[in-house]
């Protein structure tokens, strides 16, 4: 039996490796560099902990684990100490005296795994400690923090390539759950891992059921979802509800509490100790719903989160995958639920336009948003679409909304033409463009004050779309924007303008297939509970 497997059995008490773990630990134990891409819950920690112990046993030295979050580090160290591994950490939570003692113990070879924050690792004091000690392995956890495009970016991570220059013979293992190709390449380049082997696990999370519903009244849709699938006599399941703004986080949490759902708010505008307390409550108590911005993220290792809900659209497919990935880490059924509407698209486009980023970054952000809109609007399997984004092929899953209730599609060419010509005619008549609400009033023939004020009831498109209801029209406009047939103008009022692609549709050269609008109903669909 391999020594690594022995360590897995004897120290950790697990009978067998999972997935790629066996290959990774052998590779690293033998001194190879590697990059490990594995989804959250895939078992990344053992990938470096086991070779660390194996190499220590062979007298090759201790492992240094670079980890960006203090809370994460402390949990890992506590878990290792519990099974008898000599683990310790160095971070700003320690007093000078405690740090000094840990450093001495490390120098004496009394520590197998030493966790450090990247900013501490780069200090000359720490690098000198490494020079004086025997080092058997460098593990770089959450390696996507080197990526400048990602929202977890840590400038200190970029300097980690120094490790390789200073200690060329010590093997390195970098790990992350962010797998899109751009991030992967950035990690390899910035950490100088071009000669490293890449271990890419499947990113499928088969126990998560993906569902994206049309936003109608998002709050009450959320409450329906929680009540029908995540509430029972004893209270509610643990879950996370993501919102875009701090204000919406607070309002939603407050409102859920008045509706009998135990909810806490969490965002970066709160004091650190309040955030800490709430994170602990979420982790330790049963049935807490955390309503949060994406500030509540990395390092949430609660295994029994039964649902992740999005009241606002994330920025990218990676974001959606990471956030929904916090559900069901224990492997039992969990729900990823999102309400999405035209307003979300307008809002995200506006945020990109108004950001201080340079043009290249804005183009990239737009492309990322478009990929996510493609996932939202797909009539095919969500999982196939999601995995394809990470370069992984798969078959329809049978466990997402579109597999369970394949959406109807219809030939919306005529309606698309009505909508586009309405945009064109209002623009020509008034000299500026309008938002979807006003355009829909014109199409449906509503003589609102605004319509008469602009004499838009005189347009040839007035009333031509009376056969469709308001929500149906919203769905048409949303899809036209998602498909790039309409764009949100740059002034930030949510006004819609024609694009280069609109012309072919207006001229009848291009067909438009749309997903049929489904009226939100109280969901009785089998969820995580049944
Ligand atoms: P990640 O860091 O990839 O999100 P973790 O390393 O935290 O995942 O592992 C997730 C869970 O799976 C942990 O509870 C861990 O103990 C468990 N686990 C990992 N590998 C194995 C294994 N080979 N056998 C049994 N349990 C495992
Ligand atoms: Zn599916």
Automatic annotation (TrEMBL):
Keyword Hydrolase set for record: yes
UniProt keyword annotations, A-Z: ATP-binding, DNA damage, DNA recombination, DNA repair, DNA-binding, Helicase, Hydrolase, Isomerase, Metal-binding, Nucleotide-binding, Zinc
DNA damage keyword on record: yes
Source domain of life: Bacteria
Reaction equations catalysed: Couples ATP hydrolysis with the unwinding of duplex DNA by translocating in the 3'-5' direction
One cellular component term from this protein's GO annotations in UniProt: replisome
Molecular function via GO: 3'-5' DNA helicase activity; ATP binding; DNA binding; four-way junction helicase activity; hydrolase activity; metal ion binding
Gene Ontology BP terms: DNA recombination; DNA repair; DNA replication; SOS response
Start and end residues of each Helicase C-terminal domain: 218-372
EC number: 5.6.2.4
Xref: Pfam families: DEAD, Helicase_C, HRDC, RecQ_Zn_bind, RQC
Enzyme category, top tier: isomerase
Reported cofactor(s): Mg(2+); Zn(2+)
SUPFAM superfamilies with a match to the protein in the record: HRDC-like, P-loop containing nucleoside triphosphate hydrolases
Domain Helicase ATP-binding: residue ranges: 25-197
Similarity comment: Belongs to the helicase family. RecQ subfamily.
Name of this chain's protein: DNA helicase RecQ
Lineage: Bacteria, Pseudomonadati, Pseudomonadota, Betaproteobacteria, Burkholderiales
């Amino acid at each position: 039996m391999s020594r690594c497997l022995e360590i897995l059995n004897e120290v950790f008490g697990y009978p067998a490796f999972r997935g790629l773990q066996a290959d990774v630990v052998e590779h690293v134990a033998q001194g190879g560099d590697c990059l490990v891409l594995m989804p959250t819950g895939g078992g990344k920690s053992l990938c470096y902990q086991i070779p660390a112990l194996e190499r220590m046993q062979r007298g090759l030295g201790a492992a240094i684990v670079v980890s960006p979050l203090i809370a994460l580090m402390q949990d890992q160290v506590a878990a290792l100490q519990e099974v008898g591994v000599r683990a310790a950490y160095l971070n700003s939570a320690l007093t000078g005296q405690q740090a000094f003692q840990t450093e001495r113990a490390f120098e004496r070879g009394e520590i197998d795994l030493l966790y450090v924050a990247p900013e501490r690792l780069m200090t000359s004091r720490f690098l000198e400690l490494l020079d004086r000690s025997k080092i058997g392995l460098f593990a770089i956890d959450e390696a996507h923090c080197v990526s400048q495009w990602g929202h977890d970016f840590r400038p200190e991570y970029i300097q980690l390539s120094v490790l390789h220059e200073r200690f060329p013979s010590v093997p390195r293992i970098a790990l992350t759950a962010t797998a899109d190709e751009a991030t992967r390449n950035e990690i390899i380049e910035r950490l100088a891992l071009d000669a490293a082997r890449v271990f890419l696990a499947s990113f499928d999370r088969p126990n998560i059921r993906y569902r994206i519903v049309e936003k109608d009244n998002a709050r009450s849709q959320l409450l329906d979802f929680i009540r029908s699938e995540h509430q029972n006599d004893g209270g509610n399941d643990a879950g996370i509800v993501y919102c875009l703004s701090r204000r919406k986080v607070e309002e939603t949490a407050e409102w859920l509490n008045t509706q009998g759902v135990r909810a806490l708010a969490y965002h970066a505008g709160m004091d650190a100790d309040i955030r800490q307390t709430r994170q602990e409550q979420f982790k330790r108590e049963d049935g807490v719903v955390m309503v949060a911005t994406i500030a509540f993220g990395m390092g949430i290792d609660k295994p029994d989160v039964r649902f992740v809900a999005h009241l606002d659209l994330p920025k990218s497919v990676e974001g959606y995958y990471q956030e929904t990935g916090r559900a069901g880490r224990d492997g039992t059924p969990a729900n990823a639920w999102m309400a999405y509407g035209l307003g979300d698209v307008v809002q995200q486009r506006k945020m990109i336009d108004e950001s201080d980023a340079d043009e290249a970054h804005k183009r990239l952000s737009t492309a990322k948003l478009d990929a996510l809109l493609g996932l939202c609007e797909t009539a095919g399997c969500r999982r196939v679409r999601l995995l394809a984004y990470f370069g992984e092929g798969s078959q329809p899953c049978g466990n997402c909304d579109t597999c369970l209730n394949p959406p109807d599609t219809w030939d919306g060419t005529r309606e698309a033409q009505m909508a586009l010509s309405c945009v064109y005619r209002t623009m020509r008549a008034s000299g500026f463009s309008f938002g979807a609400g006003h355009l829909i009033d014109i199409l449906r023939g509503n003589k609102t004050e605004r319509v008469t004020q602009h004499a838009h009831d005189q347009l040839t498109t007035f009333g031509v779309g009376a056969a469709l209801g308001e929500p149906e029209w919203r769905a048409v406009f949303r899809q036209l924007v998602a498909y790039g047939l309409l764009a949100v103008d740059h002034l930030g009022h949510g006004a819609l303008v024609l694009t280069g692609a609109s012309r072919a549709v207006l001229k009848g050269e291009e067909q438009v297939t749309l997903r049929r609008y489904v009226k939100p109903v109280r969901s009785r669909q089998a969820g995580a509970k049944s």
